[in-house]
Design a protein that fits this description.
Elements lengths: L3 E10 L8 E8 L2 E5 L7 E6 L4 E2 L3 E3 L22 E5 L15 H12 L3 H7 L7 H9 L6 E3 L2 E2 H9 L11 H17 L3 E5 L19 H14 L3 E5 L8 H18 L3 E4 L9 H12 L6 E4 L21 H9 L4 H8 L2 H9 L25
Parallel strand pairs: 1-4, 1-5, 6-7, 7-8, 9-10, 10-11, 11-12, 12-13
Antiparallel strand pairs: 1-2, 2-3
Helix pairs in contact: 4-5, 5-6, 7-8
Length: 382
């Protein structure tokens, strides 16, 4: 008779504590991890020989955009196939609750533009059996997944709910707007949200070119929300800051200053997106140093960084390698947003030759101007 549910033998254990890896066994008994390391005595109902393989805790992916997918997909590919056992959705200020029925398409378009998730998949996949944020969590409670799921309430959805058409653009929230948003954040936290997320980067746009609601939020609005999080007692504030993809280092440094002040004043952790910027490749090091220095005054600003380079699907309507060529910019401006007209002009051999012969203009801060080829396919597949 088996003593254990599962025994993993002879694996190279990396246990997540920071200590060196080691060879050993792992046992699960009665659904509980009962031994890590050494030699497990007794057989398991299931035995795995992990010789030559790494055995690690499940990975926690704190930055995903599964907000829609978790309402219809129980497997959550591709994360599950990469050892992820917990995901956090509701990042970058885009999500789907709270939402009035007439605003659903607006939030779908926002997610499609910011995160390149096809709007048709979201529209057809989601059941939309929620209105408020607690309703959304109740809808999720009816599902089971291959991993644990956590969510955050998002600035985009929150602002649209409270401010309607005024949510988009640089409209300032009134004190009543800010108070209502703060109250709804408290409601979401009480229902089970991990925190709140916002986007301030100009890189995040809906298909119509509008920025994520909250991009231009003033200090009064942000501080009202942070105060509500502080009063609740435990929550995280996640943000994609202004300047995270800009060539102007002062943008990101100014953003860091308010994040540091917010964290120190309200005793909440602030998670900020941090990228390496091609035009200022060492700026991220300065921000990392500032994060460490901030701890001296009680601030906890934690950078979220990518573990690998980012790949992009590029095209004439988004980003590509010729954005900084003078002739391309001239032709694009003369086309007045008409894609067919732009394509016709670009087919002109003289226009193509001019673009290819030119040097790039100085960086303007436009997203993804620093593009380089990392793979090239044969013409036969195009």
């Amino acid at each position: 008779m088996s003593i254990h549910d599962l025994v993993i033998r002879n694996g190279t254990v990396v246990d997540g504590t920071g200590r060196s890896q080691f060879i050993g066994d792992i046992a699960v008994t009665g659904g509980i991890l009962t031994q890590v390391g050494g030699t497990v005595v007794g057989e398991g109902a299931e035995e795995i020989d992990a010789t030559g393989l790494l055995v690690t805790p499940g990975f926690v992916d704190i930055h995903t955009h599964f907000d829609g997918q978790i309402t219809w997909d129980e497997i959550l590919e591709p994360s599950v196939s990469h050892g992820v056992t917990t995901i956090v959705a509701g990042n970058c200020g885009v999500g789907f609750a709270p939402v009035a029925p007439e605003r659903r398409e607006q939030l779908v378009q926002l997610m499609e533009g910011v995160e390149d998730i096809p709007g048709v998949a979201l529209t057809e996949g989601m059941s939309w059996d929620w209105v408020t944020y607690p309703d959304y969590l109740d809808a999720l409670d009816k599902r089971q997944w291959s991993m644990d799921v956590a969510t955050q309430i998002t600035h985009g959805a929150l602002r649209v709910w409270v401010m309607g058409d005024r949510a988009v653009g640089d409209h300032t929230a009134t004190s009543e707007d800010a108070a209502q948003m703060a109250s709804l954040v408290t409601e979401a936290l009480e229902a089970g949200a991990l925190g709140f997320s916002s986007s301030r980067t100009y890189a995040h746009q809906a298909p119509d070119g509008s920025y994520v609601p909250g991009t231009h939020a003033d200090t009064d609005e942000l501080w009202a929300i942070a105060r509500a999080m502080h009063e609740f007692g435990h929550a995280v504030f996640e943000v994609s800051p202004l300047g995270v993809v800009s060539s102007d280092p002062e943008m990101l440094i100014k953003e860091f200053d308010w994040m540091r002040r917010m964290s120190a004043e309200f005793s909440i952790p602030v998670l900020m997106i941090l990228n390496q910027i091609p035009s200022n490749i060492d700026l991220y090091r300065e921000i990392l140093d500032r994060c460490l220095e901030a701890r001296s005054d009680g601030a906890l600003v934690i950078p979220q960084v990518s573990a690998k380079s980012q790949g992009l699907l590029i095209g004439l309507t988004s980003s590509h390698a010729f954005l900084r060529r003078p002739t391309f910019r001239k032709v694009r401006e003369e086309s007045n947003g008409d894609l067919d007209a732009l394509v016709t002009r670009l087919r002109d051999p003289q226009v193509k030759a001019a673009i290819l012969s030119e040097e790039d203009l100085p960086p303007s801060g436009e997203l993804y101007e620093g593009i380089s080829v990392f793979a090239q396919n044969g013409a036969s597949i195009i």
